[in-house]
Amino acid sequence: MRNGLAVSPGVTIGTAYCIHEVFVDPDKRSLLANQIPGELARFEQARKRSISDLRALQTKVERQVGKDAAAVFSVHESILQDMALVRRIRASIQSDHLSAQAALADLVEYYRTYLERSGDDYLRERMADIRDVVTRLTSYLSDALRPDSGALKGPIIVIADELLPSQVVMLGAKPVHGIVTQAGSQTSHAAIIARSRGIPAVSGVTGILRQTKTGDTVIVDGREGHVIINPEPEALSAYRKLEREFFNLKNQLAHNRDQPARTLDGKCLELLANINNLADAKAALAMGASGVGLYRTEYLYLTHSSVPDEKEQIEIYREIIEASPNHVVTIRTLDIGGDKTVPFLGRTQHEANPFMGWRSIRISFEHPDFFMTQIRAILCAAAAATKNASNSRVQIMFPMITNLEEVRRLQSFVKRGMEQLKKERKAFSKIPFGMMLEVPAAAIMIDQLLQAVDFVSIGSNDLVQYLMAADRDNPKVSHLCQPLAPAVLRVLSSVVTTCRDARCPVTLCGEMAGQPQAFVLLLGMGLTRFSMSPALIPTIKELASHVTIPMAQSLLNAAMKLKTTQKVKSLLNAELLRIAPNLKPILTQQ
Ligand code: PEP
Ligand code: MG
């Protein structure tokens, strides 16, 4: 049994499906002489397809973002056209009888040793380009990643280093029942994707890729953070029982989708969904969300190799608004950087602290035309959606706000966007303007900032990592990056109170909104709007129906007197089991 972080609740059993990066343990078995011509052809085909991808990307990005931004693709193409490099790979296949993937892994190793020893920052950065190119080639070479490779039957447990959005796309419609990653944490992509689909997941299980092979039977316990590889029959039957309980509870809770979200004493709540794409918007509807509280638009760019222009964006947003519950959607502008990078928006320079560096609106400000396209598209999509659904309510929200100057600058962007559209006689709507509160400086100044915005949404994933100075994606500091830490509770409570006193609508859209322990405390602080992964909504709705506001307040008072995170957790774990014992199969004990 291996232990990691419980990042998406539930228990599941399935067949391991290991996604090895090309750089990890490539298959070094020698090819037979008669396989060599086929392997050379496979490599050539992958190279040609990669080159044509890169050319298409370059043209599109150059047109929509600019020449500088597109330059990275021509660098990547020149790597693929470098005959010395191509000869090297062919020789590895031909003379050493290596598969194309193993030859690429050797190449990466060769350059890594050569470039990293150079001690030159510029050359070291080139390593990132080579890895990018090799990853692209591998996506065409690896059977494992192709959606049509149907070798595995039945429920699949994906085992990966960190699940990238592009890999999720490649997994396509496979029956993924569980996810285990070596890296990552509560708020990394894999965790967010798993929760949005209601798939049990465990992250931060170091070395699991070396201990598991595709085809092994794996148990994932997403409540306790356990992963069991090839379990004994006793463990298997015990976990089968838990798996059944989890499924039964999920089915049972699915029935509350049409019931209103209310506390036991009748306080109406808004349970909204966090979405990344159209499929999530549909899931939000199916799970009984009352709207979308956070649409992360960066997934548009993270999962597609192309950049949608204004017209395409309007269409995508309009579709999402129309598919979302009650046509209520808060659209967040691009939040790239930190853990999410998009090649065409730069980041050629290595950053020592990417989460504290060039990310989010800081990047958007440097690409004003590109940013304006998105703002205009959101304003136009809001108008287009209203035409089809008069009750639609669309809001625009900006991430990573640090100070008032940024808010003013963003307001002038929106104003300019509206003036342009008016001049061009294009239909648009004037929509509420909101900020994400995720930087401690903004939390301290919230009384001032809220006067300049129509609403506030607390991004607790980032707020917690910045408050605790603990990277949200680094399992080594996950003991610090805790939303139930007393310091976090104090800040949240003060922000919620300030917003409520000023009658400024406030939502919390970080992952803690869907964590039962945190949810009860937030309710006690006076929060009534929560945005979370769609799959968590039925659980939170059920939990709310067992809690009264005075109960939540007294739990908050008790928790605020405690001095350690562990004590807060223990108190809540015990109380939740008492308050809602029927939710036991889902309640995480970590
Ligand atoms: C957050 O930081 O809490 C948030 C919701 O945004 P993201 O997870 O996309 O950074
Ligand atoms: Mg954030």
Describe the protein.
It is a single chain. The chain is of the alpha/beta class and 590 residues long. The chain has helices at 36-64, 67-81, 83-94, 100-117, 121-141, 165-171, 189-197, 208-211, 233-254, 278-286, 299-302, 310-323, 361-366, 368-388, 404-423, 440-444, 446-449, 460-468, 486-501, 516-525, 537-544, 549-561, 565-579, and strands spanning 2-3, 5-8, 11-19, 156-160, 176-181, 201-203, 217-221, 226-229, 270-275, 292-296, 328-332, 393-398, 433-437, 455-458, 506-508, 529-532. The strands form 2 sheets. It has an 8-stranded mixed β-sheet with strand order 1-8-7-3-4-5-6-2. It has an 8-stranded parallel β-sheet with strand order 15-14-13-12-11-10-9-16. Strand 9, helix 10 (278-286) and strand 10 (292-296) form a beta-alpha-beta unit. The longest helix is centred in the N-terminal third of the chain and has 29 residues, at 36-64. The two termini are 17 Å apart. The model is unreliable at 144-149 (pLDDT under 50).
